[in-house]
Amino acid sequence: MADFLLEMPKAELHLHLEGAVEPETLHELDPCTPLEELRRIYQYEDFNGFLKTFAEVGRRLRTPEDYGLVTRRLLERLEAQNVPVRRNHAGGRGGPVEGARSRADFSTR
Ligand SMILES: [Zn+2]
């Protein structure tokens, strides 16, 4: 059943890059911070907590290379879940991040 669900074609209609960063990817960006400490950032109980998590993740994304890494990891996860990627915008507080867009491997099917 799990394989069936993974292989079933799906559509991701709307997501925010910063909101789709896994703790393991944050750990790749910041290997000096223990993974368990990073996982605690993702523990929240309400929308305010979610916004704090979103801000904490965004605070750790500093360079175009950081955005490139989180974009690649996201695309790998989407592909593993059979979510075709047609179009994506990498945007931060300052607008689109061209570096992330140009470094990402946007595979389309
Ligand atoms: Zn949105």
Question: Can you give a write-up of this model?
Answer:
By secondary structure, the chain is mainly alpha-helical. The longest helix has 17 residues, at 64-80. The chain contains six helices and two strands; from the N terminus they run H-H-H-H-H-E-E-H. Mean pLDDT is 82; it is low at 92-109. Strand 1 (91-92) and strand 2 form a beta hairpin. A two-stranded antiparallel ribbon has the order 1-2. The chain has one domain. 52% of the residues lie in helices and 4% in strands. The site of zinc ion has 2 residues, from loops.
How would you sum up this structure in a few lines?
With 109 residues, the chain is mostly helical.
Name some characteristics of this structure.
about 110 residues, mainly alpha, two-stranded antiparallel ribbon, 2 strands, disordered C terminus, binds zinc ion
